[in-house]
Amino acid sequence: MNKDLIPSSLSDLYDNMVASFSEQFAELVELIVTPGWRQHQLFIILVLWAVAYVLNLVTQGRWEAWARARTGWPKWRLRVLVQLMQRLTLVYFVVISWALYLLMQQVTWPSRSYIIGVVATLALAWLAIALVARLVRNRTLRKIFKWVMWIYATLVALNLTDDVAGFLDGVAISIGDLHISALGIIKAVLLIGVLLTLARIGTRAAERGLQNNDDITPSMQVLLAKGIQVLLYGAVFMAAIRTLGFDLTGIALLSGAIGVGIGFGLQKVVSNLISGIIILMDRSIKPGDVISLGDTFGWINALGARYVSVVTRDGREYLIPNEDLITNQVVNWSHSDKFVRLDLNFGTSYGDDPHKVRATAVRSVKTVARVLSGGSHEPVCHIIGFGDSSVDYVLRFWISDPTKGLTNIRGNVYLALWDAFQEEDISLPFPQREVRILPDEADAQQLAKE
Questions:
Q1: Chain-centre distance for alpha carbon 263
Q2: Counting beta carbons within 10 angstroms of the beta carbon of residue 310, is it exposed (0 to 12), middle (13 to 18) or buried (19 or more)?
Q3: Alpha-carbon distance 328 to 335, whole Å?
Q4: Which DSSP symbol is given to 135?
Q5: What is this structure's pTM?
Q6: CA atoms within 13 A of residue 423's CA, in its CB half-sphere
Q7: Beta-carbon neighbour count of residue 115 at 10 Å?
Q8: Are 400 and 407 in contact (CB under 8 A)?
């Protein structure tokens, strides 16, 4: 780094940091070159790593067999076990290096085990960081978290944190009373990352707790979960602003002006957000309900802040804006209960006894799976008119699982009617037409002569 490019206020910090690093590097060179207990400790560390590697080769098969037998363990414990087995050499090294370090602290001079203690501390820190990093699901963020924590652990182990912190604190800009340094930005980023992780974990824990509470309706569960999510992430946002040193009262007017401008530009988004809150509060639609909106028929998969996820029978997932559910007519097949009545129209010949037709239709529909019978859900069949070529009937029956489809149950009932009518010799009329071909004038005269 060119020293002339550094501001004069940072020159001393830069010199101190360079001197500290130079001193650490010189000590490292002296440690390697000079004979004595320092070299002995390096040799012991290499031997410990070799022993850990051999232990891994010898015991890996046994550990894998033992892990496969843990079928009753929860998933999180199995994931931790898998991570430990993937780093079995490091685990063995941490155990035996710490055991040797503590033993040497008791039986010999502390300086003769100092390097072993530093390496054991670094190994334990790397192992802990690797396990904790699994909580970060995003791969890029996980790598960033690992590198940042490894660097910090190394600085702590080498006792360089004060020098680096002093240098980073000196790299800053000042605008009036506002002072932003590189150290403050790093602390803010780390704090925000930790708080976001905790907020995500807390939100998911709250959602699981609400879903397991049968006393709360599904719509209120979603509303409470969204409220908790807004509060937690809002607290993270406020903490980030305060950590960076911004005065909240100073930016209140600016944020208000920006909010008004965004409100005019995002009217649809705000409308969907408000509509979503209304849907959750009045409980007109909840997860699991079967609805029809225009040509879309399906069940509610999830309620979002901006849209509702509707899954149809063909596997398609429609994201319907909340505003459409408020302003348009929606058929909720399971709003008050899960029972749905279906009507089938058919006709029979005038030569068939209508009493027999009605009894046969009711008897046949009861043989179809998913069709309810008994009480107020008993199937019925009524005459609804006398048509041109048939007596018209309507067959009404109930089901309790509309999410499994309506077209398939109608088709099964029609097949049951067909089979039952064939057995009872009940005919299904169809239009019949007689076509007559009239002769032309010449043919008419020839026929008259004959």
A1: 29
A2: buried
A3: 16
A4: G
A5: 0.40
A6: 11
A7: 19
A8: no
> What is the reported pLDDT for 1?
44
Q: Residue 137 has which token pair?
A: 């699901």
Which residues are CB-neighbours of 14 under 8 A, at least 6 positions away? 1, 3, 6, 167
Whether residue 405 is predicted with pLDDT greater than 80 in this model: the reply is: no
- Give the number of C-alpha atoms closer than 13 A to the C-alpha of residue 4, restricted to the C-beta side: 0
> Where do we find the tokens 């509303």?
223
- Closest-CA residue to 168 (of 152, 154, 147, 145): 152
Question: Can you list the pairs that 121-124 forms with residues at least 24 positions away whose Cβ atoms lie under 8 Å?
Answer: 121/153, 121/157, 122/153, 122/154, 122/157, 123/90, 123/93, 123/94, 123/97, 124/94, 124/98
Q: For residue 17, what are its two tokens?
A: 């940091």
Largest CA distance in the chain: 143
| 236 token code pair | 């993270």
- Taking only the tens place, the pLDDT of each residue in 215-258 is 666 666 766 777 777 788 777 777 776 666 655 555 555 556 55
First to last CA, the chain: 124
The enclosing H or E element of 307 equals strand 307-312
pLDDT (0 to 100) of residue 432: 66
The half-sphere exposure of 212 on its side-chain side, counting CA atoms within 13 A, is: 6
Dist CA 204 CA 218 (whole Å): 16
Helices assigned H by DSSP within 252-334 = 252-265, 267-282, 322-327
